[in-house]
Amino acid sequence: MKKLFLMIFFAASFIFAACQNDTGTKVNSKEIAMKKTLIIFYSYTGNSKAIAETVAKQVSSDMVEITPVKKEDYAANNYALGDSLIDAINKNPKSKTSYPAIKASTSVNFDDYCSIIVVAPLWWSHMAAPMQTYLFKNSKELANKKVGLIVSSHSSGISGVEADPKRLLPGSNFTASLSIKAADFSSRETKIKNWLKKEF
């Protein structure tokens, strides 16, 4: 009985340590790390959703899709609405009223996950507003997590998009980001595989 107790104790300690190591060094067990991954994505055109689904095929993970409460045509008038949403956030990023209302596809117990992979499109050199809302609302729960960012864009650089989650999740441990531009979309599986191997 004592031997069984010790085995359970050491197994639990190992899993706990694997989770804790995400803020410093890489985890000892890739298998445990993959069981502790949550993919969070927002997609307007469908590209980010396809990217998130490609990630999910390569890691053992759960997924959460973010959708706006009010469906809008963000592409209308040269993405004028999306631009105004980003502008509202940038003017007052600490106020919850600056962020558009969203709903998530499922509730999440963030304590179950060590690693988070965020997949979102680029809007006017920033992270899409609905994803910013989700990160803002859950910033405390996501603190001290290992966070990987995948950005979908047509051809733009992603430095502005990277700055947004780092502002919203100041206590998290960010990996190198992955940019998937329109020209890379057909080869996303290979790019994601290589990124996961290096960062996770």
What does this protein structure show overall?
This protein has helices at residues 2-20, 30-35, 47-58, 76-91, 129-137, 159-168, 188-199; strands at 37-42, 61-68, 102-104, 115-123, 126-127, 146-153, 173-174, 178-181. 42% of the residues lie in helices and 21% in strands. With 200 residues, the chain is α/β, with parallel strands linked by helices.
What would the principal axes of the Cα set say about the shape? globular
The number of distinct β-strands equals 8
The secondary structure category is alpha/beta
Described by strand count, sense and barrel closure, the largest sheet is:
8 strands, mixed
- Helix fraction by DSSP (H/I, runs of at least 4): 40-55%
Strand content: 15-25%
Oligomer: single chain
The average pLDDT score comes to: 85
Radius of gyration from CA coordinates = 18 Å
Order of helices and strands: HHEHEHEEEHEHEEH
Put simply, the count of helices is 7
Summarize the structure.
The chain has 200 residues and is α/β, with parallel strands linked by helices.
Keywords:
200 residues; alpha/beta; eight-stranded mixed β-sheet; 7 helices; 8 strands; 42% helix
Strand and helix map with partners:
Blueprint: H1 2-20, H2 30-35, E1 37-42, H3 47-58, E2 61-68, H4 76-91, E3 102-104, E4 115-123, E5 126-127, H5 129-137, E6 146-153, H6 159-168, E7 173-174, E8 178-181, H7 188-199
Parallel strand pairs: 1-2, 1-4, 4-6, 6-7, 6-8
Antiparallel strand pairs: 2-3, 4-5
Helix pairs in contact: 3-7
